[in-house]
Design a protein that fits this description.
The complex is a heterotrimer. Chain A is mainly alpha-helical. Chain A has a two-stranded antiparallel ribbon with strand order 1-4. In chain A, strands 2-3 form a two-stranded antiparallel sheet. In chain A, helix 10 packs across helix 11. Chain A is globular, with a radius of gyration of 20 Å. Chain A starts with a helix and ends in a 21-residue tail after the last helix. By secondary structure, chain B is mainly alpha-helical. In chain B, helix 2 runs antiparallel to helix 12, helix 3 packs across helix 10 and helix 8 packs across helix 10. In chain B, strand 1 and strand 2 form a beta hairpin. Chain B is built from 14 helices and 4 strands. Chain C is of the alpha/beta class. In chain C, 44% of the residues lie in helices and 21% in strands. Chain C is built from 12 helices and 10 strands. In chain C, the strands form 2 sheets. A 6-stranded mixed sheet of chain C has the order 6-7-8-3-9-10, with helices on both faces. In chain C, strands 2-1-4-5 form a 4-stranded antiparallel sheet, covered by helices on one side. The chains are: A mainly alpha, B mainly alpha, C alpha/beta. Chains in contact: A-B, A-C, B-C. Chains A and B meet through helix 4, helix 9 and helix 11 of A and helix 5, helix 9, helix 11 and helix 13 of B.
Chain lengths: 316, 331, 276
C-alpha cells in the first residue's frame, strides 16, 4: 500500500513537473500580452524533434549517443526552440499587438497548425523512438518502483524552474518582465523596454516547454508531431487552474492537475464500482477545473479582476 | 474576396456594384450546385453546415464577445438526437421535423444548463471552461457505449423525410440546408438588430457599463448562449441526417476551433463575414486536395497572414446584410 | 424621492475608504461632492451605483434599500451614472449607445421585434426619435451614425451624459464630468447641466473644477479622508475655515481656491486639446 502510494506520488510529481514546465510558458505569455498562445504546445513538440535532430547530427547511431552528446543536444535544442519562439512572436504576434485580443490567439492557432504539418512533412507523421536521456535504473523504495528517468526529470525540472524563479525575481530583466506583466501601458510610459520583456518571455517560455518535451519524450521513449496538442491543453488547463498570469500559480496548478489525474486513474474505477473507467480521467481533470473556477473565478493564485481594476473594456 | 473590401461607405458606385457582385455570385453558386457531381454537392453541403454553425457561434463570439471553445458540444447534442431517435439503435424512428424540435429544445436546455455556471467567468476563463465542457461531452459520448455506440458511433440512421418528401440524396439535403441556412440567417440578423442584439453588443464593448444602464447581463448572455446552442443543435441534426452515421470523431476540439477561426477570418460579428470565412476554410482545402498535407501547411500560414493583414476579418463589420440589401434595392 | 446615506462605510481590508457617512440628497437640487484626491468621492458614486459593495450602513432611495441589489437592478431603480474614465460602447454608433438603454424596458418583447417587422419598425422609430432628441440637446446630432469611440474626447463626455439620461433617471450621478474638457467645453457642459435640473431628479456631481461646482451646485458636500467634513451651500463652504484647511492645506484665502482651479483648468484644457 505504502509502496503504491509512493510510486503514484512520484508518477504524479514527474508528470506534474512536465506540465509545470509548459504551463509556465502559457502563464508568462499571458502575463505580458494577455494572450493565450495556442502554439505553445508545439514548442514542447519542437523540443523533442530538435533534440533528436541535434543528436543525429552529432552521432550516426542515435541509441549509442553518450552522456556528453545528450547533454549538448539538450541545451542546443532548448536554446534553438527559445529562438524559434522569439522569431514566431516577431513574425506572427507582434504585428497584432494593438489589435483585438482574439487576433493574436487565432494567429497562434495558425502557427500551431503550420508547425505540426511542417514537422509531419519533414519528419513523417509516424511516431519516432526517442532515446532515453538518463541511464536506466530502477530503485525500490518501500515497495514502490522509481526509475532513474523519473529522478532525472524531477531534478531537471526543479533546476529549470528554480532558474526561472531566480531570473524573474532576482535579475534586472526579471523586474522588467514583472513590470510589463503588472501593466504594459504604465511600463511603457516609464520608458521600460517592453519589447525586451516580451522577447524574454517568448525565449524562456518555449525554452522551458522544449525542455519539457525532451523530458517527456525520453520518459515515454517516443515522439510524434501531434504530441504537443493534448499535453499543451493539459498544461494550459493547469495554468488557468493556478490562476493564469501567476508563475507560482502555474506550477501549483500543474502539480494539482497531475495528482488529480494520477489519483483519478487509480481511484475512479474503485470508487465508482467499475462504472467509470480510467477513460474518465480527463473528465475529472476538467470537472476539478470548473469547480475551482466557480469558487475562485480567477484561479487558485490568480488576482481577482474587479470591475474598476479592469484594464481593458472589451474582453476580446 | 478582396472585392468585398470596400470600407468607404460614401463611394456610391462601389456601394452598389459590390453588393450586386456578391449577390450575383451567391445566386450563381446556388443555382449551379444541384447540377454538379455528387462529390461537389457534398462539399457544398458541408460548407452550408459550417455556415450554419458559424452563424450560431457568431452570436456568442461576435455579438456578445464571449469566447466559446466548446461549441461543438451542441453540434453533438443535435447529431446524437437524430442518431438516437431515427435509427435501430433504440428502435425509434421519429420523423425529421419532430426530431428538429426535440433537438432544438435539447440544444437550448444544454446551452442554458452549461451557461448558468460559466457565464459569470470572464474572458479566458470562460474560454477554457467551455472548452472543458466540450471535451467532457465528447469523452462521455465516446464511453457510454450502450447508448452512443462509443467510438464506433451509430450507423444506419434513417433517411430523413418531411411530409413524404425524402431528404437523403446530396441534392435533396442541399435544398433542405439552403432553406434552413436562409431562415436562420434572416432570424439571427433580425435578432442582431433587435434591442437584444444591441444589448449583446453593449456587453461585448463593456459589460460593466452595460450593467450600469440596467442590462441584466447574465440573462442576456444566457439568451445568446441558448440561441447559439439551438442553432448548433439544428446543424447537428442535419449533419447526422446527411451522413446517416455519427461518431465522436466529428466533435473534437478542432471543430470548435475551426468554427471560431471561420468567424474571425471572415469578419467577426457579421453574418456575411461568417459566410466568407466558411467559404475560405472549407472550400480552399478542397481545391488544394492534390497537394495532400502541404495544403494544411498552406492553410495554417494563410491563417496567420490573413489575420495579420486584416485582424478584424475580411468583410468589414460595416458591410453587413443591411448594406447588401440597400445596395441591391436602393433606398 | 430622496437619496439617503446612513452610516455608510467602505472598507478594503484594514483601509477605511468611507467612514460613517450620513447625508441626504434632495430632488430638484444639484449636489456637488468635492474633496482632495483619495477623499472617497468616487467611492460614494461607485457604491450608490452598485459598482462597489457597501461594507456597512445603507443607501436608500425613497425608503427602498439599494445596497445589496445587483448593479443592473440599481440602474433599473432609476439611478444612472457616468464614469471617471469614459466608458462608452466604443464600436457602437452614438445613436446605438443611447438606444440600447431601452433594453430593460423593451427586452420582454424582443421576440416580437425579431418575428414581426412592422412592430420592429415602429419600436425602432420610437426609440430613435427619443434618442435623437437627446443627441440634439447635447449638439451631438451630427455624430449620430459615428462610432462612439471615434468621437472627439469632449463629445464622448457629452454622449456619456446623454446615455445616462435616456431612461429619465431619478438620480443622476456624474463622476468628474469636466475632467479633460477645455475652457469652452466646460462652459458648455455647465450650461447643459443647469438645464437638467428638474424637480423630480436628484443630481450629484463629483468634480474638481471649483468654478463649475460653485456656479452649478445648490448644496456641496466636502469629503476628507473618507469622512464627511462639511455640507452646506456654496457660500457656506467657501466661508468655512475647516474646508479651506482641509482642501487647500495652508491656503486661507478663497481667491487662492479660484486661482488654483483656474490653473488646473488651463492645464486640463491643454491636455484635452492634445487628445482630440
Amino acid at each position: 500500500m505504502l509502496g503504491t502510494l509512493i510510486q503514484q506520488t512520484v508518477n504524479a510529481l514527474t508528470i506534474g513537473s512536465i506540465y509545470a514546465l509548459i504551463a509556465l510558458g502559457y502563464t508568462m505569455v499571458y502575463g505580458v500580452l494577455r494572450m493565450i498562445n495556442f502554439a505553445h504546445g508545439e514548442m514542447f513538440m519542437l523540443g523533442a524533434y530538435a533534440a533528436f535532430l541535434a543528436i543525429s547530427l552529432m552521432v550516426g547511431n542515435i541509441g549509442a549517443a553518450g552522456a556528453f552528446v545528450l547533454t549538448l543536444a539538450f541545451f542546443a535544442a532548448v536554446i534553438a526552440v527559445g529562438f524559434i519562439g522569439v522569431g514566431i512572436e516577431r513574425l506572427a504576434y507582434k504585428p497584432l499587438r494593438n489589435s483585438t485580443r482574439l487576433a493574436p490567439m487565432l494567429s497562434s492557432l495558425g502557427v500551431s497548425l503550420s508547425l505540426v504539418t511542417g514537422i509531419q512533412i519533414l519528419a513523417g507523421p509516424q511516431p519516432v523512438a526517442f532515446p532515453s536521456f538518463f541511464p536506466t535504473a530502477r530503485y525500490n523504495i518501500f515497495g514502490g518502483t522509481i526509475t532513474s528517468v523519473q529522478i532525472g526529470i524531477l531534478v531537471a525540472a526543479f533546476v529549470l524552474m528554480f532558474g526561472l524563479y531566480t531570473l524573474v525575481n532576482r535579475s534586472r530583466i526579471g523586474i522588467i518582465v514583472r513590470a510589463v506583466s503588472e501593466s504594459r501601458p504604465t511600463a511603457q510610459l516609464l520608458g521600460i523596454n517592453v519589447n525586451l520583456a516580451i522577447s524574454m518571455v517568448f525565449f524562456s517560455g518555449p525554452l522551458l516547454g522544449a525542455a519539457g518535451g525532451i523530458l517527456y519524450a525520453s520518459y515515454y521513449g517516443i515522439m510524434t508531431p501531434t504530441m504537443g496538442a493534448v499535453i499543451g491543453l493539459k498544461a494550459f488547463t493547469a495554468a488557468i487552474l493556478g490562476g493564469i498570469g501567476s508563475i507560482p500559480g502555474a506550477m501549483l496548478g500543474a502539480y494539482i492537475l497531475a495528482f488529480v489525474e494520477v489519483g483519478g486513474t487509480a481511484l475512479l474505477p474503485v470508487v465508482s464500482g467499475g462504472m467509470l473507467g480510467t477513460e474518465y480521467r480527463d473528465v475529472l481533470a476538467f470537472a476539478i477545473l470548473i469547480l475551482v473556477l466557480l469558487v475562485r473565478p480567477a484561479g487558485i493564485l490568480g488576482e481577482p479582476v474587479s470591475e474598476e481594476s479592469m484594464v481593458y473594456k472589451r474582453e476580446f | 474576396m478582396s472585392a468585398i473590401d470596400t470600407t468607404t461607405p460614401s463611394a456610391s458606385r462601389t456601394g452598389r456594384l459590390v453588393p450586386f457582385l456578391v449577390f450575383a455570385a451567391a445566386i450563381a453558386l446556388m443555382a449551379v450546385t444541384p447540377f454538379l457531381p455528387n462529390y461537389y454537392i457534398r462539399v457544398v453541403n458541408s460548407l452550408l453546415i459550417y455556415i450554419l454553425l458559424g452563424i450560431g457561434l457568431n452570436i456568442v463570439v461576435g455579438y456578445a464577445g464571449l469566447l466559446d471553445l466548446g461549441f461543438v458540444a451542441f453540434y453533438a447534442v443535435g447529431a446524437y438526437s437524430y442518431a438516437l431517435l431515427a435509427s435501430p439503435q433504440l428502435g425509434l424512428h421519429l420523423p425529421l421535423l419532430v426530431i428538429l424540435v426535440i433537438a432544438a429544445l435539447a440544444g437550448m436546455v444544454t446551452g442554458i444548463l452549461l451557461g448558468i455556471p460559466v457565464l459569470k467567468l470572464r474572458g479566458d476563463y470562460l474560454a477554457i471552461v467551455t472548452l472543458g465542457f466540450g471535451e467532457i461531452i465528447r469523452i462521455i459520448v465516446n464511453n457510454v457505449d450502450w447508448l452512443t455506440g462509443g467510438p464506433q458511433g451509430i450507423p444506419r440512421l434513417d433517411k430523413a423525410s418531411i411530409a413524404g418528401i425524402e431528404f437523403a440524396r446530396p441534392v435533396e439535403i442541399y435544398w433542405l440546408l439552403l432553406a434552413i441556412v436562409f431562415i436562420t440567417a434572416v432570424v439571427v440578423w433580425r435578432m442582431e438588430r433587435s434591442i437584444l442584439g444591441k444589448a449583446w453588443a453593449a456587453i461585448r464593448e463593456d459589460q460593466d457599463a452595460a450593467r450600469g444602464i440596467g442590462i441584466n447581463t447574465t440573462n442576456a448572455k444566457l439568451a445568446a448562449f441558448a440561441t447559439s446552442a439551438t442553432i448548433g443543435s439544428i446543424a447537428g441534426v442535419i449533419f447526422a441526417a446527411s451522413q446517416r452515421f455519427v461518431s465522436p470523431e466529428s466533435f473534437t476540439l478542432q471543430e470548435s476551433v475551426l468554427i471560431v477561426l471561420m468567424i474571425v477570418i471572415g469578419g467577426i460579428g457579421n453574418i456575411l463575414g461568417v459566410i466568407a470565412g466558411a467559404a475560405i476554410l472549407i472550400l480552399l482545402p478542397e481545391f488544394l486536395r492534390e497537394f495532400a498535407e502541404w495544403r494544411i501547411l498552406f492553410l495554417g500560414l494563410l491563417m496567420v497572414v490573413l489575420i495579420i493583414i486584416r485582424p478584424a476579418g475580411i468583410v468589414p463589420r460595416s458591410f453587413g446584410p443591411e448594406k447588401l440589401i440597400k445596395g441591391l434595392f436602393g433606398k | 424621492m430622496t437619496l439617503v446615506f446612513q452610516d455608510l462605510k467602505k472598507q478594503y481590508g484594514s483601509l477605511v475608504a468611507i467612514d460613517s457617512v450620513s447625508t441626504r440628497f434632495e430632488p430638484g437640487l444639484i449636489h456637488g461632492v468635492i474633496g482632495p484626491n483619495g477623499a472617497g468621492k468616487s467611492t460614494l458614486i461607485n457604491m450608490t451605483a452598485g459598482s462597489y459593495t457597501v461594507s456597512a450602513g445603507s443607501i436608500t432611495l425613497d425608503g427602498k434599500r439599494l445596497d445589496g441589489m445587483k448593479k443592473y437592478q440599481i440602474a433599473n431603480s432609476g439611478i444612472a451614472r457616468t464614469y471617471q474614465n469614459i466608458r462608452l460602447f466604443d464600436q457602437m454608433t452614438a445613436l446605438e449607445n443611447l438606444e440600447v438603454c431601452y433594453y430593460p424596458a423593451d427586452v420582454g418583447m424582443s421576440w416580437k421585434e425579431v418575428l414581426w417587422p412592422p412592430y420592429e419598425r415602429a419600436r425602432n422609430q420610437k426609440r430613435r426619435e427619443a434618442c435623437m432628441e437627446l443627441l440634439r440637446f447635447f449638439d451631438l446630432q451630427g455624430y449620430a451614425g459615428a462610432e462612439a469611440g471615434s468621437l472627439p474626447y469632449g463629445r464622448q463626455r457629452m454622449l456619456e451624459i446623454a446615455r445616462a439620461l435616456v431612461m429619465n433617471p431619478r438620480v443622476l450621478l456624474l463622476d468628474e464630468p469636466a475632467a479633460g474638457l477645455n475652457h469652452h467645453e466646460t462652459a458648455e457642459l455647465t450650461a447643459k447641466l443647469a438645464e437638467l435640473r428638474s424637480p423630480e431628479r436628484v443630481m450629484i456631481i463629483v468634480e474638481h473644477d471649483m468654478d463649475l461646482v460653485m456656479t452649478l451646485c445648490d448644496r456641496i458636500i466636502v469629503m476628507h479622508h473618507g469622512k464627511l467634513l462639511f455640507q452646506g451651500t456654496p457660500a457656506q463652504v467657501q466661508a468655512s475655515p475647516d474646508v479651506q484647511l482641509a482642501y487647500l492645506g495652508t491656503a486661507n484665502d478663497i481667491d487662492d481656491i479660484k486661482a488654483a482651479a483656474e490653473a488646473r483648468r488651463a492645464q486640463l484644457g491643454i491636455r484635452a486639446r492634445r487628445r482630440s
